[in-house]
Every structure is written in C-alpha cells, then in structure tokens.
Design a protein that fits this description.
By secondary structure, the protein is mainly alpha-helical. Helices cover 53% and strands 9% of the residues.
C-alpha cells in the first residue's frame, strides 16, 4: 500500500512539474511573439550595424533600411552619406575623415559635426581658406589652407591636442574653450548633428 501511495505521489509530482514546464514555455513563446526585438539604429550588434536614412516612405517608422553593412565599414559610409545629403565639398574626403579620427583616437563624427555647426559643412567659410571649423579665425587674421586635405589633417591634430588630450570630450566641454561666449546653442547644435549620424536620421 505504501508503494502504491508513493507511486501516485511521484506521478502527481512529475505531472505538476511537466505541466508547469509546458506552461512556462508556452508563455515565453507568446511573449516573444508579441514583443519582437526591434533594431536599434546606429548601434553595433555583434558585427553588424543598421544604417537607416530618413525617407518618409515607410508608413510605420518613416525610415527605410537601405543597407546592412559590417561594423568595420559602417562609420566611413555614414560620413559619406551624411556629407552627400548636405552636398558638402568634403564628400571626397569621407574616408580621410574616418582615418584621421581613427589615427588620433576620437569618434568618427566630431570633425563632421563641428564643421556642420561652424560652416554648414564648408559652405560658409572665408574665401579660399578651406577652413570649415572656424578655428584660427580672429582679429589678427584667418587660418587658411591650400586644400581641404591639409585643413582636415591640421584640424584633426588640433582637436586631439587642444581638446581630447585635455579631457574636453563633450560638446559642452569643447564649447567652454572653443566658443565660451555661446549661450549653449553651439553644444546643442553639435549634439544634434552627432545624433543625426549616430541614429542615421538624416
């Protein structure tokens, strides 16, 4: 009699555990079905980045996924697409911009974002200066370069030496030295352009 009771008890225990396991598994499936993972724009997931450019043709998000590219290639392509969007004369130098940022150890977006804030990506600069960042421009004269390439190389080194090496590594901190008279609009503008590139919303 005791053996029968033990067998019945074991049967009910195993049945309960099995039922619970099936219930949990089914609940998990329902949850995953109703909460599908959404892609995060501009964020690396393993070795892939989803570069998304605003087009207004997607009725759900207003954004089209135009390319899935490897993480190693994503940032120079973002620079190029961004410069093309705004018809900047820096388009031919998109790879150089990325390479300089890599060489000097700062994020790919700084040179472009500051150029957008200072000169609408080189469309409003002192004549023949190739200076898109407003640096070295003061009452004593204007810092000019013979080409955009020379300007880019000089500016990348300047950013690292005068800002990043000194711990000035946010738009607000850079603004405190770059244009201390700003009421904060300079930093807000730079943040806006950084976010446009990071999120692919341009």
């Amino acid at each position: 009699m005791d053996d029968l009771f033990k067998k019945i008890k074991r049967f009910f225990l195993l049945s309960t555990l099995l039922f619970f396991g099936v219930f949990v598994g089914f609940s998990e499936l329902l949850y995953l079905k109703n909460h599908q993972t959404k892609k995060v724009l501009g964020v690396f997931s393993e070795n892939t980045i989803n570069l998304m450019i605003g087009s207004g043709s997607d009725r759900d998000s207003g954004i089209d996924i135009i390319e899935n590219i490897s993480g190693d290639d994503a940032r120079p392509l973002i620079i190029k697409k961004y410069l093309e969007k705004y018809k900047s004369p820096l388009v031919p130098y998109s790879d150089l911009i990325f390479q300089l940022s890599q060489n000097y150890g700062f994020e790919y977006y700084w040179i472009v974002a500051i150029a957008q804030q200072e000169s609408n990506l080189c469309k409003k600069i002192p004549q023949d200066s190739h200076n898109c960042w407003g640096y070295g421009i003061h009452k004593r004269g204007t810092l000019s370069f013979d080409s955009y390439e020379l300007a880019l190389r000089s500016y990348a080194e300047y950013l690292k030496r005068e800002y990043f090496d000194k711990g000035l590594n946010t738009p607000e901190l850079i603004m405190s030295k770059y244009c201390p008279s700003s009421n904060g609009s300079w930093a807000r503008g730079v943040w806006q352009f950084i976010n446009e590139m990071e999120l692919g919303r341009f």
